[in-house]
Amino acid sequence: MESLDLRVLGDVLAWRQAGHAVTLVTVVETWGSAPRPPGALLAVRDDGVVSGSVSGGCVEDDLIARTKASFKDLAKGEPALGKPDMIAYGVSKEEATRFGLPCGGTLRLVQEPVLDTTWVAQLLDSTANHQLVARTLTLVSGAVQLSPARRGQEIAFDGSTLTTVFGPKWRLLLIGAGQLSQAVAQIASMLDFEVLVCDPREEYAATLMSGAPDIRRLEGMPDDVVREMHPDAHTAIVALTHDPKLDDMALIEALTSSAFYVGALGSRRNQETRKQRLAEHFDLSPTELARLHGPVGLALGAKTPAEIAVSIIAEIVQVKNGVTGGANAVRETAATAGCALS
Question: What predicted TM-score, i.e. pTM, was given to this entire model?
Answer without folding.
Answer: 0.73
